[in-house]
Design brief:
Elements (H helix, E strand, L loop, with lengths): L5 E6 L2 E6 L7 E3 L2 E3 L6 H20 L4 H19 L7 H18 L8 H4 L10 H17 L5 H15 L4 H5 L11 H9 L4 E5 L22 H11 L17 E2 L4 E2 L25 E3 L4 E6 L4 E11 L7 E9 L17 E5 L20 E5 L4 E3 L1 E4 L10 E4 L3 H16 L12 H9 L9 H10 E2 L4 H10 L5 E11 L6 E8 L8 E6 L5 H13 L7 E6 L2 H9 L7 H4 L5 H14 L2 E6 L7 H13 L7 E2 L9 E5 L3 E3 L3 H18 L5 H8 L5 H8 L10 H14 L6 H7 L1 H4 L15 H4 L3 H25 L4 H9 L2 H7 L10 H7 L5 H9 L4 H37 L4 H21 L6 H5 L17 H12 L28
Parallel strand pairs: 18-21, 21-22
Antiparallel strand pairs: 1-2, 3-4, 5-24, 6-7, 8-10, 9-10, 9-14, 10-11, 11-12, 11-13, 12-16, 15-16, 17-23, 18-19, 19-20, 24-25
Helix pairs in contact: 1-2, 1-3, 2-3, 5-8, 5-19, 12-13, 14-17, 19-34, 26-28, 26-31, 27-30
Length: 976
């Protein structure tokens, strides 16, 4: 029943009234809001109200920056993530949301409104999350989980196919790469893939939907994003898909009529390029079904990995659909007829009999009868015609009638497989250097007898293991182990970080028959860890084991054993599995075990306990680390890993995706921060490796007070942030913001000669004379602190203290200006120079104790500097305001009055909103118009971090001098 308000639906014996929701109204389902038109305005407005309400209330309360950061990072942004999990918030909306939460952050730390966004969202400082960044990493992680989840993977495949149809392309990732920016016309997956290019990330899917007869889709060459779908509509109307369709043979001239810019010829119908076979004829589109007689077809079915025979009974070619055919299923008679016993197997005739029913049978009118026949419906263009004649022979166990094919079963099977590969494989250029698998196997046959190796082991090794040079050693091992059914291995891994590039070695020894002397060792890189090295040893041992065998692995890695046992736990969902370390390798392990049907058990061995076999495996692993051939696995062939994420140069991200992308974002913010013209000296110091970023990060968040959070602590943090970013309220900034109020007074309050600025403050001659006694006093404290805590001989680290450049100048001759001593300048700007942390390392003081001692020393030192320099300057500034009758209310009134004038100017000022066309892609990390496309620092740092697999802050200690001149030539100011 239906009326204007409800729809009555019957569930069993009950009738339930379902409320009818208007198209523009939203229905709340599991906490998110959805409407039939797929509009998200209601959710956006709800988030906007939530942010404004929360932030306005927070401003009225006396809370510290720690409270604000916690509420934003742990309450508001997770709430936004949940509400928006089914769509992408566009950049301009994210920027509006970010402005709201940034304002309360600045207010809690008493920071100026012009503070850089690269500080607010920078992990080096006390920071809040950027909504845009958090949305990207959460959506990327979600798509990866959905694509690898057995319950949702088919839906993702359909959405990818649907998007390819919308964008008129055969490679959605290639096409979205050239879209300017996310758009409301794109769906969630399309927008996400468009954003990923800015992070040098790419999803690799193990499935792909291809369109034949061309190489480059025209949609990839459409550069005007605002007209993109209009162009696509025009191409669809003209039935033009590939660039190859509208260019001449020499690939130069486009054949267009210059008067009307139309093609001078009709676009030819795309035909299959397989002249050796014939396909069923395509009938005209109609709503009618056409009956067919005496047409036999065959095709390769990937579902059961075999050829399918059939007699066509009807064709359907409905409007805007592909043609399908329904056929009666026939099977090959595997037993030979007595008249063919003398023939060779490949020369025996191919006889067909009716299938009485199989898993391929579908529900249709033919299968509803009682004839015990099997009928299947499939796409017409995936089949080809075969010649069949009726046979009078009879076969036991089969029902009449029988039919005989003109070609042998093996010939038709080979033809079907080739045709299937042509239909499903991507187009390959004629000059491609990809090796043909048949040619490659014939080359391997010259070195090893492939017939003696089990075909399952052979396929696994050839498909999964890379590079190809590792195939022969593994194939020989598989041949040597082919006769065993119960196998035992001792495995071990080795991690060497001595060089700049860490190397992992793996090795194992076959212990069931020591006389056979079967061992293996190898090396690998990327995401260096001892657990990964051990896991690679286990995988290389299992991949050469005979099918249906029992395996016992002796390993000293308790982590590998625990993770393997966790794989069978029902608590480990598909999404949680993608977050474990080395998830793609664990999927490879599961795939090998299931394919070979192995029974695997692990036994824990104590490391370095005198076990001869375990020590032998350890020696093999260390020998393997010296190899120059690094093993990797082709994840595209692993069925339960439908997609994986890669970075820049193909580095597979098999770690927690959120945390890995967070590292990329951190490095991007680091580079953006260094590009600020206002802190160009810090950029030079960073590129010359003068700053200890790990201790600097700890120092910016250090709390010396007994309370976990307080207003005084917030003031300390505020001072450190302002000092490090040259945002102290000096006269140059005050005159910029309040020119009429200060009457252009710019003279330094300390030296009374130079113009006061943040840069001048630490280079003022008066400041140098004031801090000299402070550094003399703290030099003695520094020396006493280290010598009292160190258990090493003083002579071994004395030079690190006595010749320390931070204190040496105070005991000898002061410099002309502070910038002549970069380490001292870093320290005064609240960065921790390496020269200050190195003496603790030279004295062999533990890292935890160093943190405690060094941070307390820094606090006392900066407290004296603050009270001596800034308080003296603040007293002079206070007298100046008193003399000129300037109060706090004066600044508030000035800001209030001049904000009105500013708003009026903004209304009349013409602003070019089409930033994409004028400046390239505008990445919405913050409001800056500075771009990273031509820079490589963050890419270099990320690649190094993924290689070494260390905390992201440790990668900032890399030698960055090579970037000093080639990437920072183009510096732009922040748009604030």
């Amino acid at each position: 029943m239906y009326n204007n308000k409800t729809v009555s639906l019957k569930f069993g014996v009950d009738i339930v009234d379902i409320k009818v929701v208007p198209p523009n109204d939203n229905e709340r389902i599991l906490g998110i809001y959805i409407n039939i038109n797929n509009k998200f305005k209601f959710t956006i407005n709800k988030i906007n109200r939530m942010l404004k309400y929360t932030c306005s209330n927070l401003k009225k309360k006396r809370i510290t920056h720690d409270h604000v950061i916690y509420i934003i990072n742990k309450v508001l942004i997770p709430r936004i993530e949940y509400l928006c999990q089914h769509f992408i918030i566009l950049p301009y909306i994210c920027n509006n949301f970010n402005r709201t939460i940034r304002s309360i952050y600045k207010s809690s730390l008493l920071l100026p409104r012009s503070i850089y966004n690269t500080i607010i969202h920078n992990q080096i400082y006390p920071n809040i999350l950027n909504i845009w960044d958090h949305q990207f990493l959460s959506q990327t992680s979600l798509l990866n989980a959905q694509a690898n989840n057995p319950l949702t993977k088919n839906l993702i495949e359909y959405l990818i196919l649907y998007s390819q149809s919308r964008l008129w392309t055969n490679d959605i990732f290639f096409t979205t790469k050239y879209l300017d920016s996310p758009s409301k016309k794109l769906n969630r997956i399309e927008n996400l893939l468009c954003i990923m290019h800015n992070y040098k990330l790419e999803f690799k899917f193990s499935f792909k939907f291809n369109t034949k007869e061309g190489s480059y889709p025209l949609s990839a060459f459409l550069i005007r994003s605002n007209q993109f779908f209009n162009f696509i509509k025009s191409l669809k109307n003209k039935d033009i898909f590939f660039l190859d369709q509208i260019i001449t043979v020499d690939d130069n001239s486009i054949i267009l009529n210059q008067n009307n810019l139309r093609l001078t010829f009709d676009v030819p119908v795309i035909n299959r390029q397989n002249p050796t076979i014939s396909h069923p004829k395509i009938i005209a589109q109609s709503s009618q079904i056409t009956k067919i007689k005496n047409i036999w077809i065959a095709y390769w079915c990937p579902r059961n990995n075999d050829i399918i025979y059939g007699r066509v009974v009807e064709k359907q070619h409905f409007y805007n659909h592909h043609q399908t055919i329904t056929f009666e299923h026939y099977v090959n008679i595997s037993t030979s007829h007595p008249s063919s016993h003398n023939n060779m197997p490949r020369s025996r005739p191919n006889y067909l009999a009716k299938c009485s029913g199989c898993i391929l049978s579908e529900q249709n009118i033919y299968n509803n009868n009682s004839s015990n026949s099997c009928y299947i419906t499939t796409l017409s263009n995936y089949t080809f015609i075969i010649n069949v004649s009726k046979s009078n022979l009879s076969f036991p166990n089969y029902r009449k009638p029988f039919y005989k094919c003109v070609c042998q079963h093996s010939t038709i099977k080979q033809t079907a497989l080739i045709d299937f590969n042509l239909c499903t494989s991507p187009p390959v250029n004629s000059d491609s250097n990809i090796e043909d698998p048949i040619i490659y196997r014939s080359q391997l046959q010259q070195f090893i007898d492939l017939v003696s190796i089990n075909f399952i082991n052979k396929n696994l090794i050839l498909q999964l293991v890379q590079p190809n040079s590792l195939h022969i050693p593994l194939l020989k091992l598989a041949s040597s182990l082919a006769l065993y059914t119960n196998l035992e291995f001792y495995t071990d891994g080795s991690l060497i970080r001595d060089d700049n590039i860490p190397t992992m070695g793996h090795g194992w020894i076959f212990s069931s028959d020591l006389n056979a002397n079967i061992t293996y060792s190898g090396a690998s890189r990327e995401w260096a860890s001892s657990t990964k090295a051990e896991l690679l040893a286990i995988i290389t041992a299992l991949i050469v084991c005979p099918p249906s065998s029992t395996i016992t692995i002796h390993t000293d890695s308790n982590n590998c054993i625990n993770t393997y046992n966790k794989l069978s736990s029902p608590k480990l969902t598909a999404r949680r599995f993608q977050n474990i370390n080395n998830c793609t390798l664990w999927n490879t392990l599961k795939y090998i075990i299931s394919t070979l049907q192995l029974s695997v058990s692990f036994i824990k061995v104590k490391a370095h306990s005198g076990d001869i076999l375990n020590d032998t495996a350890d020696i093999l692993a260390k020998e393997g680390s010296r190899s120059t051939e690094y093993i990797t696995f082709n994840i595209q062939h692993i069925k339960n890993q439908r997609c994986h994420l890669t970075f820049h140069d193909g580095t597979v991200i098999d770690r927690n995706i959120r945390k890995s992308i967070k590292r990329i974002i951190n490095f991007q913010y680091f580079e953006r921060h260094l590009k600020h013209q206002n802190i160009h000296r810090i950029k030079d110091y960073a590129l010359n490796n003068l700053i200890d970023w790990e201790f600097s990060q700890i120092w910016f968040k250090y709390n010396s007070l007994s309370k976990p959070t307080s207003e005084q602590y917030s003031k300390h943090v505020s001072w450190r942030i302002k000092s490090s970013s040259n945002n102290l309220p000096t006269l140059d900034i005050l005159n910029r913001n309040y020119p009429d109020l200060l009457n252009n007074h710019e003279t330094c309050f300390l030296c009374l000669t130079e113009k006061e600025s943040n840069d001048h403050l630490w280079n003022c001659p008066r400041v140098l004379s004031l801090i000299t006694p402070i550094f003399l006093e703290h030099y003695n404290k520094f020396k006493t602190l280290i010598t009292s805590e160190s258990e090493s001989v003083y002579a071994l680290y004395s030079d690190a203290i006595t010749r320390n450049i931070i204190f040496k100048w105070a005991r000898t001759r002061p410099p002309n200006q502070i910038i002549d001593i970069p380490d001292l300048h870093c320290l005064l700007m609240n960065f921790v120079p390496i020269s200050l942390s190195y003496p603790f390392k030279a004295a062999k003081i533990s890292k935890n104790k160093t943190k405690k001692l060094l941070l307390k020393f820094l606090f006392d030192l900066h407290k004296d500097i603050y009270e001596t320099i800034w308080k003296a300057r603040a007293s002079a500034w206070k007298e100046f305001k008193k003399t000129h009758h300037i109060t706090k209310k004066s600044f508030n009134n000035y800001r209030r009055d001049h904000n009105r004038d500013t708003n009026q100017n903004r209304r009349t000022r013409h602003r070019n909103n089409n930033l994409e066309n004028s400046n390239g892609y505008h990445c919405p990390f913050n409001d800056s118009r500075r771009h990273l496309e031509n820079n490589n620092l963050w890419i270099y740092l990320t690649s190094s971090n993924f290689l070494h697999n260390l905390p992201w802050i440790s990668s900032l200690n890399e030698d960055l001098s090579q970037f000093h001149f080639n990437i920072y030539n183009n510096i732009f100011l922040l748009n604030i």
